[in-house]
Write a structure and sequence with these properties.
The protein is of the alpha+beta class. The protein folds into 3 domains: 41 residues; 95 residues, Translation Initiation Factor IF3, CATH 3.30.110.170; 110 residues, Protein of unknown function (DUF541), domain 2 (Alpha-Beta Plaits, 2-Layer Sandwich). Helices cover 38% and strands 34% of the residues. It is built from 6 helices and 8 strands; from the N terminus they run H-H-H-E-E-H-E-E-H-E-H-E-E-E. The strands form 2 sheets. Strands 1, 6, 7 and 8 form a 4-stranded antiparallel β-sheet that branches. A 4-stranded antiparallel β-sheet has the order 3-4-2-5. The longest helix has 32 residues. It is flat and about 95 Å long.
């Protein structure tokens, strides 16, 4: 019985009074758990703060900006236009649009526009209604079908800019309903944007090297990078001229100008 008390006893008041208690072993386990928790907590307070300080120390940095700029002459023109017809019979309206588009495409090809550069961007059929009112009570009006509007939209690329004025003028005589979005741009615009960005990065690197030397510090690594938009800027320089040097009166005057593509970037360097 004495051995049993020694094994089961935990030293609590119940053990002292009765010689044993049913929770003796659990008391020992709880004490061990509490001790482990205390050790973990103390270790975290000592080591954890040091780890936090080591990884969150404020680093010394410098910020520099760079700019890249390209001046390029446009090599393509883009233009959009639409053809619309209306008729009570939707098939007749569609046929009329198709006839005009066929003539326009033929004219474009004869002016050197490649078929791959002629693209349909929209084809819409809308019923159009008139509203008739009633002059007597209860004054309920009604909608009456007035016809169908059929519209086809086309976008084209003009690669021979010497013919841009003639093409635009010809479109005006071929039943085009509206024309918009005439832009002079570059066929490989994305590649030019990358070139401007490379120039901006190189410029920022030079500025960072000069600044680090002036401050007496050393560049360690790039910690952040940001890039602004790349915006083409247009400058008008010339008008369409014939071989004799006079302005062509029968063609649209379309200055092609020059595009300036810029890239602005910002780089943050860690320094020591």
């Amino acid at each position: 019985m004495e051995e049993k008390n020694n094994e089961m006893g935990c030293g609590c008041k119940m053990c002292q009074k009765f010689g044993w208690c049913p929770a003796g072993k659990w008391h020992k386990i709880i004490k061990i758990i509490i001790l482990i928790i205390i050790v973990i907590f103390v270790g975290k307070m000592i080591c954890g703060d040091r780890y936090y300080d080591r990884n969150n120390i404020q680093k010394d940095t410098i910020v520099v900006s760079g700019k890249g700029e390209l001046a390029v002459k446009p090599d393509i023109a883009t233009v959009s236009f639409s053809v619309m017809e209306e008729n009570m019979d939707v098939s007749k309206a569609s046929d009329a649009v198709n006839t005009k588009i066929a003539k326009i495409v033929e004219s474009l090809k004869s002016n050197g526009v490649d078929e791959k550069d002629i693209k349909t961007t929209g084809y819409n059929i809308y019923p159009r209604y008139d509203y008739t009112s009633v002059q007597t009570y209860p004054y309920n009006g009604k909608q009456v079908l007035a016809g169908y509007d059929v519209t086809q939209s086309i976008s084209i690329k003009i690669r021979d800019l010497t013919k841009a004025g003639k093409i635009v003028s010809d479109l005006g005589t071929l039943g085009v309903t509206d024309m918009s979005g005439l832009n002079f741009t570059e066929d490989k615009y994305d590649d030019l944007v990358l070139q401007a960005r490379d120039q901006a990065i190189a410029d920022a690197r030079v500025q960072a090297t000069k600044l680090a030397k002036a401050l007496g510090v050393r560049l360690v690594k790039i910690v952040s990078y940001s890039e602004g938009g790349n915006y083409p800027v247009y400058y008008s320089k010339a008008v369409s001229m014939d071989s004799a040097g006079s302005v062509r009166s029968s063609e649209a005057v379309l200055p092609t100008g020059e595009n300036k593509i810029t890239s602005n970037i910002s780089i943050t360097y860690e320094i020591k």
